[in-house]
Design goal:
The complex is a heterodimer of chains A (about 270) and B (about 280). Chain A has 2 domains: about 50 residues; about 200 residues, MetI-like fold (Orthogonal Bundle), CATH 1.10.3720.10. Helix content of chain A is about 75%, strand content about 0%. Chain A starts with 8 loop residues before the first helix and ends with a helix. Chain A is mostly helical. Chain B has about 280 residues and is an all-alpha fold. Chain B has a single domain, classed as Orthogonal Bundle (MetI-like fold), CATH 1.10.3720.10. In chain B, about 75% of the residues lie in helices and about 0% in strands. The relative contact order of chain B is 0.13. Classes of the chains: A mainly alpha (about 270), B mainly alpha (about 280). Chains A and B meet through helix 1, helix 3, helix 4, helix 5 and helix 6 of A and helix 1, helix 3, helix 4, helix 5 and helix 7 of B.
């Protein structure tokens, strides 16, 4: 962009139009978070904005919200388990697919990515019916299984991207210097693709924690999950403690995001 | 002699564990879903095409499907306008601003959908900020009903899905050769003309990608549709859930979720075809 020329009026006009719409978009992206955080500090009982006064009472109320705590713990356990599975299963598969030229590799790639395209609701219902027909009781384990399937695409996407960007010359020189394939993998490949794997694992984790369509069908009273619990609380009564939980979740997400950005440059990897 | 390609590639056998997992826990459940949809009754006693006949003829299911797809279109269009302006401004911003913008765009993707939707319930509610501001400004006397309206739902959904639209657009705009736009203005085109005749067409693949993601996410957005849409507006996700969980009518629920799945796949295929055409033409 040359700053020496005077900007033509039409350029300024275009900038103005698009710039104001963009500003509106940013406002719309930020406003919900800001509103929720501010409302969570209200001292009243309703979600009036701006709040009549401020207090920490709703955060204190979270201490008694055992249902929410229980659901949160379940969500955490399932997210950890599902992410672990996604990584353990997905990384080898990514390795197999990333550099392969065979047609079958493309087929496998499409298969493993398909949970992203299909409505997860259909998959959730299918899993429910499947486990029921097999007489397998619903539990945290079945939730972990369901979540791992929808988490795999995220891990594979970033891992394949990381593997594709690995210069083959590095691996070839390692081999020509006498290293075995296992050694090359451990000392050369793995460290280089670790940020990619971590980024994918992070997204898989967050998406499991936030997952609604699969949890909706695969949970029961004893395996309550946080997003479903929150939704049901909201359907029943607009409780301000939901605002407090939401603020904590936003804060947690923000911190995790900043950490992950530092560690893995995650915003570049998820485009 | 070792095949040179084997140094940097891995055998497809490495994909076996995941393939087995998917066979057992992804493909098999979907197959079971298909089978269940061909049962004629909830006791699962005999087969028949009854469920599909019901969908085609009950005068309720197909309109719900159509309305869901239409909601997707409306939200995607609004999202496109907002998202394109945002992405366009992003690539023209200084690096420091870009870091901040990227954080603002990516954060909602990682925040819980319930949280984001709940925030819109707060904003659009009778005591929410929109009504408060309008009342304070004296534009209205009584709070407007924004929640549980189609318009409110579209705005909230467009906002929730905005990051999905913005990210592919940013990638596409960043790949754009700036010389092309300069050439256009050097040849005398106004900025608007350049925008509509050069920039937009060249970023068409990004537009298609963004629209695809937004559309797919919008029509399956169970929580947003139910919290902001309320009970009056029924869309496919809630319809499936009601039939499956509340009414325990598994065959019918299976049938409508398969119809839904096919509809989504058809739209994805259409988008992909558009994407292919736009890449060829660009």
């Amino acid at each position: 962009m040359s700053s020496v020329q005077r900007q033509a009026p039409s350029t300024l006009a275009l900038r103005g139009v698009l710039g104001s719409i963009a500003a509106l978009a940013v406002l719309l992206l930020l406003a919900p978070t800001v509103v929720v955080i501010v409302v969570s500090f209200t001292n009243g009982y309703s979600l009036k904005f701006p709040p009549p006064g401020y207090s920490l009472r709703w955060y204190e109320a979270l201490g008694d919200a055992w249902q929410l705590q229980y659901a949160a713990l379940n969500s955490l356990k399932v997210a950890v388990g599902a992410t672990l599975l996604s990584v353990l299963l997905g990384v080898p598969a990514a390795m197999a697919i990333a550099r392969s030229e065979r047609r079958f590799a493309r087929v496998l790639d499409a298969l493993f990515m398909s949970p992203l395209i299909l409505p997860a609701l259909a998959f959730g219902l299918a899993s429910l019916i499947y486990f029921s027909r097999l007489n397998i009781n619903l539990s945290l384990a079945t939730l972990v299984i369901g979540h791992s399937v929808v988490g795999v695409p995220y891990v594979m996407r970033t891992t394949i991207a990381a593997l594709s960007q690995l210069p083959p010359a590095l691996l070839e020189s390692s081999a020509s210097l006498g290293a075995s394939r296992a050694y090359t993998f451990r000392r050369v490949t793995l460290p280089l693709i670790a940020p990619g794997i971590a980024a994918g694992a992070f997204i898989a984790f967050m998406s499991s924690f936030d997952n609604v369509p699969v949890s909706l069908f695969l949970r029961d009273a004893s395996t309550d999950m946080l997003p479903i619990r929150m939704w049901q609380d909201l359907e029943g009564k607009l409780d301000v403690s939901i605002a407090a939980v939401s603020s904590l979740m936003v804060l947690g997400t923000l911190i995790l995001m900043i950490v992950m950005e530092r560690l893995t440059g995650i915003s570049k990897r998820i485009r | 002699m070792k095949n040179p390609a084997s140094v940097s590639g891995y055998s497809l056998a490495f994909a076996t564990p995941l393939a087995t997992w998917f066979l057992l826990f992804f493909l098999a459940p979907l197959a079971v879903l298909v089978v269940i949809s061909f049962y004629a009754d909830t006791q699962l006693s005999h087969f028949g095409l009854d469920q599909y006949r019901k969908i085609a003829t009950d005068g309720f299911s197909l309109p719900v499907l159509a309305d869901t797809l239409w909601l997707g279109v409306q939200v995607t269009l609004l999202c496109l306008v907002l998202g394109y302006a945002l992405s366009w401004s992003y690539v023209r911003s200084p690096a420091a601003m870009q870091k901040v913008l990227m954080l603002i765009i990516v954060m909602p993707l990682l925040t819980s959908v319930v949280v984001r939707t709940f925030a819109w319930v707060v904003i659009l509610g009778r005591q929410g900020i929109v009504n408060s501001v309008f009342i304070d400004l004296g534009w209205i006397d009584t709070p407007m009903k924004l929640l549980y309206t189609r318009g409110g739902l579209i705005v909230a959904l467009a906002n929730v899905q905005l990051p999905l639209m913005a990210l592919p657009l940013i990638t596409a705009l960043q790949k754009l050769d700036p010389n092309l736009e300069d050439a256009s203005s050097a040849l005398g085109a106004s900025a608007f003309r350049t925008f509509f005749r050069v920039t937009l067409p060249l970023t068409l693949p990004g537009i298609v990608a963004g629209c695809l993601l937004t559309f797919a996410a919008t029509i399956t957005a169970f929580i947003s549709q139910s919290l902001i849409g309320g009970g009056q507006m029924l869309f496919m996700p809630m319809y499936i859930y009601q039939q499956a969980s509340t009414l325990q009518n598994w065959p019918f629920a299976a049938a409508i979720s398969l119809v839904f799945l096919v509809a989504v796949l058809a739209c994805v295929a259409a988008f992909n075809q558009l994407g292919r055409l736009s890449r060829a033409g660009a």
